[in-house]
Structure formats: structure tokens, C-alpha cells
Amino acid sequence: MGGDLVLLFAASVLGSAHCLAMCGPYVAMCTAQFAPRGATPAARCGLRVLFNLGRIATYSLIGLLVGAFGQIAQAAASRFGVTGIVAIAAGGAALIFGSSMMGWFSDPARVVTMAGMGRWLIAGRMHLNQAPPVAAPVLLGALQGWLPCALVYAAASRASLAGTPLMGAFTMLVFGLGTLPAVFALTLVPQRLLRRLRTQRLAGVLLAGQGVLLILRGLANFGLVPPTEWW
């Protein structure tokens, strides 16, 4: 694990406020469904905890999958002496997603939405409405974790270089924990105020910085730049 993991956590804290513009209505709708108006604050908080457990579990699963894929890719690349190319590719992806959050171009994650992911998620939510009351918030949170998001994809690019599937899952766990403050703030702070924070660009800068560090890690593997504790 490199020092860029600090940047990933900071980016998740800052970028999650922006993600509420897309995920906020979904979270509010799911909470209202399982927390009636007369529910106590403790009950509402408990439902949000269950919802976020499911969401972070999905992030960890994504990290597990990309960590496994990255381990295979690095092993294959090492046979040809080009291990650094994997880090350069992952860094390039993080740089692209970070730049999109800075507003330099359209979010490339929209390609996933256009491919039909949105319809699949809506259909899944309709089926999960029939799940048991305790399991439903967890499952709905797990479903929300698959929503197309540049922030998530940038984090996944970092998880692909974690070395092992478990470390990939840990990387995405760190990322998921960074998103918790904004999601819980949704119940305490009006969405208008959260959107005025304008932390999206700063999060994009951090993700782009992470991408640069990963690229430098790849270049260091080729001996083109000296290695440091950051890459």
C-alpha cells in the first residue's frame, strides 16, 4: 500500500458530497420506505447503518474482483518484464476519472449508464422491495454500490494495484468509509447546503494526483524515475 491511499480516502470524503446529487434521492427513498414518519431517530439511524453496510460491502466486493484481476495482470506482465505498464494503465484511468470530476470533460461513467445499468438497478430495487424488513436495507445499499460513478471507478483503479484480492477489498473498504460522513449528513443537512460545498473539483484534483502517483510508480518500475515511499 502506497502513500496515495491517503489521497484516496480524502477524495472519497470530499467527493461523496457531490455524489449525493445522484445517490441522495435513492438513499432518501429507501430510508422513507422502511422508516415510517413515526420512527424514532435511533430506528432511522439503524436503517442507515444497515444501508451503508450493504453499500460498503459492494465496494469491498468490487475491490476483491479488481484486486484479483490486477494480480493476474501484474503476474502476466512480469513474465514479459513490463510490470510497470499495469500501474501506468491504472494511473491513467484514475487521472481520466479525476479530470472528469474537475469538469474538464463529461463523466466517462455515463457509458455504463447508457449500456443499461440504470434499468437493471431499477428492476433489482423492485424485487428487493419484497425482501424481509431487516435484509432489505442491506440489499438496497448493496445495490446502490453498483451505481455508475467516476469516484468509485477511480478508487477501483487504485484497488487493482493492491497486490492481492484481499488488499484490493481493503482499499475499497477505506474508500467506502470515507463516504460515510456525507451519506449520514443527508439526514441532518439540507441537500442544497451540501451541494454548495463544491468539493467535487477538489476531490477530482486528489484523484488526478493519485493517478499521477500511480503512473510514476509504473515509470519507477521501468527505472525511468527513482522510487519513493509515495510510489
Word description of this protein:
- By secondary structure, the protein is mainly alpha-helical.
- It has 9 helices and no strands.
- It has helices at 4-34, 41-79, 84-101, 110-128, 135-144, 150-159, 165-185, 191-196, 200-221.
- α6 runs parallel beside α9.
- It is elongated.
- The N and C termini lie close together (9 Å).
- The model has no long low-confidence stretch (mean pLDDT 81).
Q: What's a concise summary of this model?
A:
The protein has 231 residues and is an all-alpha fold.
List keywords for this structure.
231 residues, mainly alpha
> Helix coverage percent of residues?
over 70%
Structural class: mainly alpha
Rg result: 18 Å
Largest sheet properties: none
Number of domains: 1
Strand proportion: under 5%
Order of helices and strands: HHHHHHHHH
Helix count from the secondary structure assignment:
9
Provide the low-confidence segments as ranges: none
**Averaging pLDDT over every residue, what do you get?**
81
Ends apart, CA distance between termini: 9 Å
Shape: elongated
Number of strands: 0
Secondary-structure map:
Blueprint (H helix, E strand, L loop, with lengths): L3 H31 L6 H39 L4 H18 L8 H19 L6 H10 L5 H10 L5 H21 L5 H6 L3 H22 L10
Helix pairs in contact: 1-5, 1-7, 1-9, 2-5, 2-6, 2-7, 3-6, 3-9, 4-5, 6-7, 6-9
